Amino acid sequence: MKIKLAILDKDTAYLQRIVSVFNNKYADKLEIYSFTDQEVDLETAICKFQKISRIYQQILNLYSEVAADIVTASSGENNRTKIISVLSPAGGVGCSTIAAACAKALCQNGRRVLYLNLEKYGSTKILFQGEGTEGLGDALYAIKSGKANLSMKLEGIVRQDRSGVYFLTECNVVLDRLEMKREELDILLQQVKLGDGYDNIILELDFSFDSFEMEAMKQSHNILIVSDGSENANTKIQRVFDAMNILEQRGGSVLTNKMALLYNRFYAQTGKQLEDSYFPVLGMIPDFKGMKLQQVIEEIAKTNVFENLM
């Protein structure tokens, strides 16, 4: 479906340039009409002196508010997009670093990747930066209210990091995330998968047996469990695996066959691999001492630990 867009501006040179750029970049999305001699009263204005991608996002946001009842075309079930969840029952093992590095590694290999932090107190802005003012909280409001076209809303609020990774920023108010229900998670993931042609969605999650986190893992194709090889981390992960096996024996969703271990900040002298593990080890990453967070993410992305996910 194309959006019919009328652009009004008395500056003929600007009008010609912006119409040309829109036609080059968004010909499959927009049907452009331009005018230089029209006078109209507008309730909302978009600043014209900004990047064309940002103008396009704002157009989608505005249109989504008046197009809630319009059903955008989709091909139904999408088997292309693969969800990779990154989580750990052990704290301080670097899940955010691993999730960001995984997203960048896949992107560097030509994948279209969306990073989505669904931790209760997670922060995306320390990992990725991009232009925009809206984020996950706005997507949740669109889902709850039903007053916006969710497909267009998502396309309008997703940002892109300079690495090429797409992302949604965390909720501005933590309570919005804490009130997010399993059903809303399902709507969000299904719409993302059907919407903008992502090859991979990287989910960063808290570890929990609550219905929300279990639903996210159920929809995942791969589940990366992060450990640092410490006795504390290994003990917690072993207890999780034991609990998962019991749930599966009781007829619950089979998740353990999707799981793999990834050791981060691993010291051969003090760290230890989990004994008698039923799960494959994706890789072992050393501690990059003295480096800043973004440097560490870049170094991990260059390794081959994510090759089996491609």
Question: What structural keywords apply?
Answer:
310 residues; alpha/beta; eight-stranded mixed sheet; Rossmann fold; 15% strand; two-stranded parallel sheet
Q: Uncertain regions: pLDDT < 50 for 5+ in a row?
A: none
Q: The CATH topology of the domain at 82-132 and 159-309, please?
A: Rossmann fold
CATH class of the domain at 82-132 and 159-309: Alpha Beta
Rounded Rg: 22 Å
- The order of strands across the largest sheet is 5-6-4-7-3-8-9-10
Give the strand content: 15-25%
Give me the count of strands.
Answer: 10
Helical content class: 25-40%
By helix and strand content, what is the structural category? alpha/beta
Reading the helices and strands in chain order gives EHEHEHEHHEEHHEHEHEEH
Q: Tell me the CATH architecture of the domain at 82-132 and 159-309.
A: 3-Layer(aba) Sandwich
Q: Shape, please?
A: elongated
Intertermini distance: 31 Å
How many separate helices?
10
CATH homologous superfamily placement of the domain at 82-132 and 159-309: P-loop containing nucleotide triphosphate hydrolases
Mean pLDDT: 88
Q: How can the largest sheet be summarized?
A: 8 strands, mixed
Quaternary class: single chain
Structural commentary:
38% of the residues lie in helices and 15% in strands. It has helices spanning 12-25, 52-66, 95-108, 136-145, 150-157, 174-178, 182-195, 211-219, 231-249, 293-302; strands at residues 3-8, 30-35, 82-87, 113-117, 159-160, 166-168, 200-204, 222-227, 259-263, 281-284. Helix 1 links the parallel strand 1 and strand 2. The longest helix is centred in the C-terminal third of the chain and has 19 residues, at 231-249. The protein is elongated. The model has no long low-confidence stretch (mean pLDDT 88).
